[in-house]
Amino acid sequence: MGKSPHNFFQAIAAASDEKALRLLFMKEAGEYFGAECWGLCLLNEQSQAAEVDIQGGPNVDAFVQRYEKIGRSTDPVLRYVFEHHAPTHEGVVFAGNDWKESELYQNCYAYYDQEHVMMGPIVNHGRLIGGAYFTRASDAPAFNLQDLASLSGLCLHLSARLAVFRPQAFPRLQPSISDRLTEREQQIAELVAQGLTNAEIGEKLWITQNTVKQALKRMFRKLNVSTRTEMVARLGDSLNP
Description:
Elements: H1 5-14, H2 18-33, E1 37-43, E2 49-55, H3 60-71, H4 76-84, E3 88-89, H5 90-93, H6 98-101, H7 103-109, E4 114-124, E5 127-137, H8 145-165, H9 183-193, H10 198-205, H11 209-223, H12 228-235
Antiparallel strand pairs: 1-2, 1-5, 3-4, 4-5
Helix pairs in contact: 1-2, 1-8, 3-7, 9-12, 10-11
Keywords: DNA-binding, Transcription, Transcription regulation
InterPro entries: GAF (IPR003018), GAF-like_dom_sf (IPR029016), Sig_transdc_resp-reg_C-effctor (IPR016032), Tscrpt_reg_LuxR_C (IPR000792), WH-like_DNA-bd_sf (IPR036388)
Protein name: LuxR C-terminal-related transcriptional regulator
């Protein structure tokens, strides 16, 4: 990690709007973490990338295109952030040399000499609305526990400031029978209402197909239904497909 966090955090708290916040992040965050590439991604209501800023390295655009094409849908580091709402790096998710032996690393990260990766969540009202991303080349040290602690603090301040600009980001289900469901279960219910399969839901929410299956079982019990159609009918107008 490079700079002291205090001035950076104060500048985040003083950002006048979302655009100013994003510009500040892109100006300062790379040096703060000693990263070669870094970026900020804000999601839309369907948990898809809406605002993406990427910087660093001569091949950053090509790297991003390759990652979007063959890496994003299978990235365990990204999935960890989506599932746990916590920052992580490849050393936490992969054991031993598994990272360098993974298809994700060999077909994407190593292709552009990005050996180390760290990601952190941006949340609003318990919902993931974006993430901060950092990579380092093979000749740089790996991200460590201090980096994770610093990223956790950064994401906390980013989330707090974005909450000012987005006081009710992505209002979802209205108070009703749907209150029996968790935030994640509400998201799944809305995607079911759109006609998506378990696999498609998992891909959109960055969780496994089995996680979707187990969640649906819990939801059926909570709502006292036995099929997806019954569930959608029971939730009725509280859904926002």
